[in-house]
Amino acid sequence: MAGQFEARTEINRPVEEVFAYLAAGTNDPEFSPRVQKITKTPEGPTAVGTVFTSTVKDAGMKTGRTFRITEFEPPHLIRWTEVSKNLVTADQGGYDLEATGPGTTRVRIFNVLEGHGVGKLLVGLALGAARKDADGFGQRIKAAVEAS
Fold this sequence. Notes:
- The protein is α+β, with helices and mostly antiparallel strands.
- Helix content is about 25%, strand content about 45%.
- The protein is built from two helices and seven strands, in the order βαββββββα.
- A seven-stranded antiparallel sheet has the order 1-7-6-5-4-3-2, with helices on one face.
- The mean pLDDT is about 95.
């Protein structure tokens, strides 16, 4: 079983600033408490093919996650796919950004979660937790970007 969660938020910053913050990719620990560490390869600006490797803590367990940028259209769209082999992965995910006025941006983040092996039994729990936290996740993104 696969499923999607998403969050939306309105950020009091211009779309170019919000895009730059999110595209950096290494700011995730500032708004996602599950991300403990993240690195980017290669160094330099994010582009299609950039890979982010992170250590995350879910349900008390640490796992390694690797994501590859698959689409990158400044300042409106970022897409990724998880290439790591975990029980539950984000096979598709992304940010959609839209300028909603002078100095304001609407952001939509989504992930499509897929279970693999025993993870097929766990993906429903992961989706439930992600959906329950979606509004809070959106608010943490807003707070982090506005504080940057």
